[in-house]
Amino acid sequence: MASPAGTSPTDSPAPVRANTAPRTRRTDRWWLPPLLTTLGLATFVIYATVRSFMRTDYWAAEHHYLTPFYSPCLSDSCVAGSSHFGTPIGELPVFIPLAFLSLPFLLGFRLTCYYYRKAYYRSIWMAPPACAVGEPHERYTGETRLPLILQNVHRYFFYVALVITLINTYDAILAFGGENGFGIGLGNVVLLLNVVLLWCYTLSCHSCRHVTGGRLKHFSRNPVRYRLWTQVSKLNTRHMEFAWLTLGTLVLTDLYVWLVSSGAIADLRFIN
Ligand code: FES
């Protein structure tokens, strides 16, 4: 809709929410999905925060399993063997996670993800919590001003996430060569499954879809990009699924490495 003469869309007052009562006439359990989403996200955030600051049992030396929560480990504070890219950084104080270079970007990538935005806008921000349910906020400004306008940096987090996924893949490959040489254990399967799903999540990103096929006027003149865009688009339809699956596999992978590294369980070996 055109703006009144002399004004731009950003000059317009923020739309005011309709004052409807009652809040909803829905009689089903509309509150269940937002509640489950909040619980799922909170569980992951608490687990990841605790583990990132623990600084123990993140490297299973015998099988060269490194948890993704500590990768890349680049400081002198990392245990011997866990630094696949050397230790260019000196000792880190205890309040800085050892993977301080990757964690902020991974967190930023997830926080600004289109799917997670939808999830936490609805479940935590309650804007709105469900279809046909009123929200507690009186005004709606969307992502047009601070702080939510910062969500637009998602495309840049995507490029960093590609690099971090490559690093996780490298860690998973190195884990096939433990202290006794080549071998395959359940830990390798867990690490591999995690990186495959991380690739699915990263490549199904909406920014990736734009990178491969965005701004093209003629697909017929760009057959390679068209083919890539087609494949990414297929993955993109399952982005929400990958978002949840990777939260699960990240926790599972870390937990498995933690248990093996601490000696609570022995790695199940298939070869060697
Ligand atoms: Fe979810 Fe980019 S849209 S990771």
UniProtKB/TrEMBL annotation:
Q: What residue intervals traverse the membrane?
A: 30-50, 94-116, 156-176, 182-201, 242-266
- Region (Disordered): which ranges? 1-22
Q: Which UniProt keywords apply?
A: Membrane, Transmembrane, Transmembrane helix
Compositional bias segments (type: Polar residues): 1-11
Q: What is this protein called?
A: Succinate dehydrogenase
Give the organism the record lists.
Prauserella isguenensis
